[in-house]
């Protein structure tokens, strides 16, 4: 690309002085672009990933599980990437609606939507004693109403910061590409109309109004749905400043105001959830573990992400990456072109 640019900008028929001047100008323009994009481009971030793991087995191996010291380092790198600084002590009372405190088990959980949040809230309600039996998978979304009292916006009025700092804290995160696809399938597509509340139907209508010029009444009365491409265009047009189910995960994680004792990539939730429950002194099973029944590399959202994203032009992929780049950094997440997508790329 650079060679062709130089050929275009520096034709041989010009005087050598003019050639040198033009080439220097191109050099400084490129340098300026790189400096402006100092947080890293899509190509820079994913360069070399293809050869890191090359795991072809349908079963995940224990040595691919990212250890906590590595995940903590990734979290700190994500904070640094945004030119933030972590505080000496966490400030949990400043966290938003997606952070919960369960006092009986002295546990804090922050759950970005579409990263196993509902399943974790259900498990934590059982651990807390607020839920006496497992909720069936099709009804798991209803636990959010039951968990309202445990949200940090309520609990910070009952517990001081020193008590909150003594609690065990953890969060669950997910590969941004599969989360992107899962959010569309679950909240905006025709696959799950019965799960779409008024706010999601409103978003659906907004996307189609922007992309097709349709009225809200027409969209809802005729049960029309945006395509994945329309969803992506809408997301990039608004720079990710949209509903919490679709915007970057880091914006829910109270970064950089807190540190977590445990960071759990949902791609390894079955394998790592036992350690989370052990720290609570509970013997429980996480419902709907992302990797309990199937290899996450073979699951529907991963398969569709590979297929759908491959059809977008590079400038659209670049725009998406710029929105979610901090989320990728949180666990060195793989690109959709990687053979081990969507796993975190921990190299033993």
What is shown here, in short?
The protein contains 15 helices and 4 strands. The chain has 348 residues and is mainly α.
Outline the structure in words.
This protein has 348 residues and is mostly helical. It has 15 helices and 4 strands. It has a 4-stranded mixed beta sheet. α9 (176-187) crosses α14 and α12 (228-237) packs across α15 (314-329). The radius of gyration is 23 Å and the shape is globular. The two termini are 35 Å apart. 35% of the residues are buried.
Give the SSE string: HHHHEEHHHHEHHHHEHHH
**Helicity range:** 40-55%
What structural class is derived from the secondary structure elements? mainly alpha
Q: Strand count, sense and closure of the main sheet? A: 4 strands, mixed
Shape, principal axes of CA atoms: globular
Radius of gyration: 23 Å
Strand content: 5-15%
- Catalogue the unreliable spans: 1-14, 24-38, 50-58
Amino- and carboxy-terminal Cα gap: 35 Å
Side by side, the strands of the main sheet go 1-2-3-4
Number of helices: 15
Overall pLDDT, averaged? Answer: 84
Please report the total strand number as a whole number: 4
